[in-house]
């Protein structure tokens, strides 16, 4: 999941949001997420055509030929689900927060049968999974544990007033919000090809952010979908299930693929950015792990680093390589 804002100045407010399950928000400044809301859409999204399928909650961008990026801009996660169309079927990469049904938006965009695949199974990416029947997933204990859904206690920090631009969606009960259980129709493996009909999508296992993190590559169209391994914002490497050894290998793998890529589609904030940034992330991440850089701030155990234009949010435990039992699923962070 994202757990950050558009720039470093918003990180202190963000950290409070994701750790707070109380109604009060006395430490949240009036100029936090409200400032982000006033500047929407974010610069990268302003360049993209806005589709008529957009609603009060979802902004749908035509981010490439046969690709629709469905953004939830009015909640601080700014989660993005990507719908990829072939001639015979469609692939939905993530289903968002689940605060508003996403299936009606998908049905307004395509009549093709839709298969869901998640970039990983943090709650802000699987919230709408229960709306769909045909779901692919990673065959792991971590993923299967997350299929049970996330309780209100685990996600309550995402529905306090300060988490929204204009308040929560009108039909959302913020006192009981949770993500529903779901199940997989089948499982995917690294290197598997998903044939959408005249469009081949390759699955790439990129563990690190989570054990089940995936990326997708459309080689013919030079498109790379990176989930939370990379997105155009501060990179969150803080969750207890994050493994920096795995992340190092994954970002190196994606940076190598980038030489044949034109556009990158992340899972938060900006629907699409031009290729060229992944090598910078790889280099900055190497410097992060070298220990030669000091965090610019520390908030409730979160260490915030700014290295050559790339921002990371991590922790001392993660930097020290502390491992947890991931078979029990995500922490809810």
Tell me the major beta sheet: 7 strands, mixed
Topology, number of strands: 17
Overall 3D geometry?
A: globular
Query: CATH class, anyone?
Result: Alpha Beta
Topology as H/E string?
Answer: HHHEEEEHEHEHHEEEEEEHEEHEEEH
CATH topology: Metallo-beta-lactamase, Chain A
**Helix share, percent:** 10-25%
Helices, by number, come to: 10
Describe the structure.
The chain is of the alpha/beta class. The chain has a single domain (8-328), classed as Ribonuclease Z/Hydroxyacylglutathione hydrolase-like (Metallo-beta-lactamase, Chain A, 4-Layer Sandwich). The protein contains 10 helices and 17 strands. It has helices at residues 11-19, 33-38, 43-46, 103-109, 123-126, 141-146, 152-155, 244-257, 278-290, 316-319; strands spanning 59-64, 67-71, 80-85, 90-93, 114-117, 135-138, 186-188, 193-195, 200-205, 214-218, 223-227, 235-236, 263-266, 273-274, 297-299, 302-307, 310-314. The strands form 3 sheets. It has a 7-stranded mixed sheet with strand order 1-2-3-4-5-6-7, with no helix packed on it. It has a 6-stranded mixed sheet with strand order 8-9-10-11-13-14, with no helix packed on it. Helix 8 (244-257) runs antiparallel to helix 9 (278-290). The longest helix is centred in the last third of the chain and has 14 residues, at 244-257. The protein is globular and about 55 Å long. The N and C termini lie close together (8 Å). The relative contact order is 0.16.
